[in-house]
Design brief:
The structure holds 2 protein chains of 2 kinds.
Chain A lengths: L5 H4 L1 H4 L6 H39 L20 H32 L4 H14 L3 H16 L4 H26 L2 H9 L4 H12 L1 H16 L3 H4 L20 H9 L4 H34 L1
Helix pairs in contact in A: 3-13, 4-7, 4-10, 5-7, 6-7, 7-10, 8-9, 10-13, 12-13
Chain B lengths: L1 H61 L2 H4 L3 E2 L4 E2 L2 H32 L2 H16 L2 H28 L5 H5 L9 H26 L2 H9 L4 H30 L2 H6 L17 H8 L6 H33 L1
Antiparallel strand pairs in B: 1-2
Helix pairs in contact in B: 1-12, 3-7, 3-9, 4-7, 5-7, 7-9, 8-9, 9-12, 11-12
Classes of the chains: A mainly alpha, B mainly alpha.
Chain lengths: 297, 324
Amino acid sequence: MDATNPLVTTPSPLRASRVRPGRRVADRALRISCLVATVVGAVVLGSILLMLIVEGIRGLSPTLFTQPTPGPGSEGGGIANAILGSLVLTTIGIVVATPVGVMAGTYLAEYGRGSKLADIIRFLNDVLLSAPSILIGLFVYTLMVRPMGTYSGWAGGVALAIIAVPVIVRTTEDMLRLVPGTLREAGAALGAPPSKVITSVTWRAASSGIVTGIILALARIAGETAPLLFTALNNNSWFSPNLMGGVANLPVMIYQFALSPYPNWQGLAWAGALLITTTILALSIIARLVIKPQNAR
Amino acid sequence: MPALSQSIAIAETRSTPRRGPSRGLDAMFRTCSYAAALLVLLVLAGILGSILYGGWPAFREFGFGFLTSSAWNIGTEQYGALVAVIGTLASAVIALLIGVPVSLGIAIFLTQLCPGWARKPVAMTIELLAAVPSIIYGMWGLFIFAPIFARFVQIPLSNLVEGLPVVGTLLYARVPSGVGIFTAGIILAIMIVPFIASIARDMLDQIPTVLRESAYGIGCTTWEVVRHVLVPQAAVSIIGAVMLGLGRALGETMAVTFVVGNANRLSASIFDPSSTIASRIANEFNEADGLQLNALMALGCILFVITFIVLIVARLLTRRVRAA
């Protein structure tokens, strides 16, 4: 496990003088290029964050959280409707995806062991996990937007749910598999039926892992733009509790405003981008902190 | 003996009323989890079915010519997939050419070279790159990277290669704006690096330390250990990880839409603006109707087929190793 133990790494510089030059050059080249690759990765992340902070803070205004998006070319306004819409859409997505994902993951880990069907489902779930999200947008468009005749928040929520489900299925299954079989046997020996064993023993033992999966899914769908383009679209007015019709949301707002010719809109897009990225990075870091005790075990 | 059978009988009669409802619940729970798992299958079938249904009229209208035609004319209703398909493949290949060496470098650095204290923060930084939404990469690409790239790479390079055969057509930028297929490839490379790097790192970590230590023990340098011990051991799964990255690059939408230029032009230069399947759908879908909508859905079908073949191969490669 421990790759950089001192026994392994220290001898090579000591013996460097006795190593043939060609081998030494190849070794140096590898070390330097690996270091450069990592530095480049870190620099890119740093430059993205720097861009967001500089431009995003410039776009901040006191009305950001209190006013809806302004019309084209007009001044002022905020992104309150987009923030609210994004919260509603991701909530719908995660509320729909969590029971489906956890139950499907439970089937794969508990009931479907060794069954062919479970193998196929597990495999296709992995494929769905990295499927292009724009195709999911097309699917929900055909499924909901076209029959209903209007873009709707519900369609947006369903599209996000479809993206979230595979993430939750995968982590739930992985985490349930980490639960030792003896715990299940102990539960069964007390006379508990399988459903009771699952709900009060295995789920509980794997709870932090399952929650991590849900947070990761949340982080994944919070920034999704492509599927929302064809489902929830956008809306410049205040959020209405009726989810039929376009619903404003941060990602589509950012997309449309960033590419617009109006400086005011571009400023709002940057502010929205800063907001959404900090939220998602915070969620990912939280997910990693939650999963830590699981790994230590 | 009679006492025993009597007590069993009592136990059975006692347990029956208690078990009744809980057995019903048990069956219900099982059915629910089964249904949820089947839903995953249903969604995948639904995706394929819906875009096939939507794209069918375009396939029927243009037949096989849809794949080989580079037309995309809304006025005359002539549609072909060639430009978008080539754009998709070209940007993904560029992304792999740049992204794979970098991600392997990062994976090797993290598992072999990085001092222990720095490992966690560095790994976290790289993984956070994966969490950044694609639209942010698009903005970074368009507003930060493209101007710098145009000024310091495209313009000098275009001046250098102008008029040269082959290299001149390949690298000459007619409009050095920084956007185009190559920029899309670079942004895609940045986006797939964290995925490939983290899988490759896991695979390198799984190789028994004994192998590495014995290689060092007979006097191998780090390069030789990597080249002759680690890479052969992890090769299959690393190829799987690369395919997974390819799958992502092929289907990535928003970041590419920002930086690809969205032109329907077949150009030999990698610096010219073009389109990918996903960027064209994202750009035109909301204003499209009739045959154009069908053609976009048909593009979606092609994207589905390409990415799913790639993803299935990727999962098969990574799976076989996990099982072994």
